[in-house]
């Protein structure tokens, strides 16, 4: 019998390592690793491209061009009776004050056509800005003040370099005369870009420079509030019953299959359900956060149930057995021990479901939350829209000034979604227990 020495072992392993089949297998493994790395780099590249494009287009919306004018708040124009009635002050005609201030800034302009171009430098909402100032501080009446007022969308785009002055005048919405007026204002320091607080404090508007996201953001907030109030308790109680109390039967199997199927149903189907049931049968007010939240609750409910059941399953049976051993009833063991231990996972699933609901557009379009609404909602029964629907409306607008607003609203929506997902990760890391 031949002795099997270490030299024989080395020779056999060397022959195996140098065999063509093994080299081919190692080469395939190396190529597969590189395929995965390349796929990750391509996906990351597209993600960076998407975010950089959105940020590049939307960053300008956080600044707004303003024009400084010396305004004479004439009492004869604003409040000739001198009563200082708030309603009269709010409804007064402030346009003559603006035209007089512009004429004072450009006294050399006398032709009617030139004045018409001059008046277009300001936003049509500038008169409302003056009205708001006087309503907030009636002591301005009878004084001369330097007021910074919002410029028109065309002037704003020109100041941000979005309009090429070298183009032929017929190919741009701002004329050479307008450009000369802007340059004169720049020379005197009467025009500059400021932080656009109106974007966060105004509702929707037909004028891009006056449009804001506050109304849509509050509409989304109230809708999510209704969604959470309905979906969270129903989802948790359903999961607890199916996981802890329900006996295995054909009925429970059917319920489980339907819950899993509902989680994969397109969101627009829930919108059709809300349109036919909530609006058609129960006649709930159209285009309100109440009906929007109810539709989003139907859509979010399967996600919460599935996440809650998975959290309940993760609690070891020894917890239940220990509770029973100490004389606890089924209900006491469930709600005093099992549910509190499963709550971190339940909250994580709920937050992820709410984040999905925040970005939904299709079901809200079906129930009429696509309407143009200027007023800021103050409750769940006020007419409102939502942030994704607002983005949809602005993206469909032909006004070039809404391109910036659309991208800026997307940035705000993404920020909310990222914060909600980070909150879910934080809760999972902070509260979960490993068994």
Describe it for me?
This protein is mainly alpha-helical. It folds into three domains: 6-58; 63-203, no CATH class; 214-431, Orthogonal Bundle (MetI-like fold), CATH 1.10.3720. 65% of the residues lie in helices and 5% in strands. The chain contains 19 helices and three strands. The protein has a three-stranded antiparallel β-sheet. Helix 11 packs parallel to helix 14 and helix 15 packs antiparallel against helix 16. It is extended and about 100 Å long. It starts with 5 loop residues before the first helix and ends with a helix.
Primary descriptors:
435 residues; mainly alpha; MetI-like fold; 3 domains
CATH architecture of the largest domain: Orthogonal Bundle
Proportion of residues in β-strands:
5-15%
CATH homologous superfamily placement of the largest domain? MetI-like
Please report the total strand number as a whole number.
Answer: 3
Shape verdict: extended
User: What would you report as the Rg, rounded to the nearest angstrom?
Assistant: 32 Å
- Unreliable segments (pLDDT under 50, ≥5 consecutive)? none
Distance between the termini: 55 Å
| Secondary structure tally, helices | 19
| Mean pLDDT over all positions | 87
Major sheet size, sense and barrel closure? 3 strands, antiparallel
Assign the CATH topology of the largest domain.
MetI-like fold
The helicity comes to 55-70%
Count of discrete domains: 3
- Record the strand order, biggest sheet: 2-1-3
- H/E series: HHEHHHHHEHHEHHHHHHHHHH
Counting helices, strands and paired strands, the structural category is: mainly alpha
